[in-house]
Each structure stands twice: as structure tokens, then as C-alpha cells.
Specification:
single chain, 227 residues, alpha/beta, 9 helices, 6 strands, 11% strand, globular, binds iron/sulfur cluster
């Protein structure tokens, strides 16, 4: 079914843009911390998600281990059809050990529900599993240290579609430096899995006018899954 046909079909069923709901602005944090160099040891081998999670509980492969409260491994169904990948944990995720909680997480939950899924039917993860202090972007060596874990998650879950949330994750997974506006709405692949980039829910909290664009992107995902 083409995206335009899918839109008409959904609207005929009485759906409206489910992302068009009031949300609060997200607070950002500021840090002047200057971290030490990353320390990368040999990456262990895992046979399943449980083994991966067990290792990550004590992971010290990069400097992000020094100030974290929790390793936010990721959560969801081991056989998820859709995998969402964000940048890294924020303060609330660091506190709870769960990905995408707080206001941005609630908006992601609404996005998932709008697609016809429960949150637990999908898998939600981040490029790095520990919170960068002050919500700064992860550094290249931190990404290099942690990327093997995201790769293993993709290999174990083998989702039908990966949705990259925000420019950082989109750049990391597509291997480009293009702005998100140039990446969204176009399919690429990550480890053989179809990949679509869209705006991060935290961005939508600041720019709610772009919710329509995200819903358009999610309809492309639904059309891909329907094939
Ligand atoms: Fe380990 Fe990744 Fe956390 Fe670095 S960010 S300490 S590599 S789990």
C-alpha cells in the first residue's frame, strides 16, 4: 500500500494525527566536565540479549562509565518487528536504567501506539548505553567503544525495520553527516535491515509543528511492515 493510500485508509477509519498532543518543553542540562580518555578493552562475545545485558551491567569500556548511575541497555521484545534507536540516555534514563522515559519517552510511547503497537512489542535502544554528562553528544571514541553492543542487539533481534531517532543516531547508522532533513523519508540499510530516520521525540517537544513529518515517516514504516 502506498503511503498516500495508507493515509487515506487511516483517515477513513477515523484516525487523526495521534502525535498532535500537548507536551511540555524538555529541560536541558549543562556541564563543563572535561572527561579523561576512553579505555577500550577487547569486546567479549555474546550468544543472546541476556548475556549482553549481563556484561553491560559492569561495562567500563569507555569514560561514560565513570559518572553513570545506570547502564541503559535497552528494552523490548526479543523478536520485535520494529527497533527504535536513539542517541544515548538522558538524566531520567540514567536514573531509572530504562530507555526513553520522561517526556520524550512518553511522546515515543504515543508514536508507537499510533503505529498500532504496544511499547513492549518493539525494541528501544541507544547508540551509547551510558549517559554522556550534561547530555552532551557522545564522542567518537565512546561510540567506537559502545557500537559493538548496538550491533549485537540488531543481530540478535533482526527487526524488520530500524527507526533512527534524531540526527545523531541517523548519522551514526547511515554513516553520513547529512542533516536529518536530508535523511528522513528515505530508506537505507543498517546491517541488512531497512532503516528510516526521523526526528527525535525530544526535538518534537521543542518543535511540535514537525509532528506531522514524523507521522508521515511512521506511515512509511507501517507501509514497509505491511508488505
Ligand atoms: Fe560500556 Fe557503552 Fe557504557 Fe561506554 S557507554 S561504558 S562502552 S556500556
Amino acid at each position: 500500500m502506498k503511503p498516500r493510500d495508507l493515509t487515506r485508509y487511516l483517515e477513513d477509519l477515523g484516525w487523526r494525527d495521534p502525535l498532535d498532543l500537548p507536551v511540555e518543553q524538555r529541560r536541558s542540562e549543562v556541564s563543563n566536565e572535561t572527561p579523561p580518555d576512553a579505555t577500550v578493552g577487547a569486546a567479549p562475545e555474546f550468544t543472546d540479549l541476556a548475556g549482553l545485558a549481563q556484561f553491560l551491567e559492569g561495562c567500563t569500556r569507555c569514560r561514560l562509565s565513570e559518572q553513570r548511575r545506570s547502564v541503559v541497555v535497552g528494552e523490548g521484545a526479543a523478536d520485535a518487528r520494529v527497533m527504535f534507536v536513539g542517541e544515548g540516555p538522558g538524566a531520567e534514563e540514567d536514573r531509572t536504567g530504562r530507555p526513553f522515559v520522561g517526556q520524550a519517552g512518553k511522546l515515543l510511547d504515543r508514536m508507537i501506539l499510533a503505529m498500532g503497537f504496544e511499547r513492549g512489542q518493539t525494541y528501544i535502544a541507544n547508540v551509547v548505553k551510558c549517559r554522556p554528562p550534561g547530555n552532551r553528544d557522545p564522542k567518537d571514541d565512546e561510540i567506537a567503544a559502545c557500537s559493538t553492543f548496538l550491533d549485537r542487539q540488531v543481530e540478535f533481534i533482526r527487526p524488520e525495520v530500524i527507526v533512527a531517532l534524531g540526527r545523531f543516531a541517523a548519522n551514526r547508522l547511515t554513516g553520513t553527516e547529512k542533516p536529518l532533513g536530508a535523511l528522513r523519508g528515505r530508506w537505507s540499510h543498517y546491517k541488512g535491515v531497512p532503516l528510516l530516520a526521523t526526528y527525535h521525540p525530544a526535538y518534537l517537544l521543542r518543535t511540535p509543528a514537525d509532528k506531522r513529518k514524523v507521522w508521515d515517516d511512521l506511515k512509511l514504516v507501517l507501509a514497509k511492515l505491511a508488505r
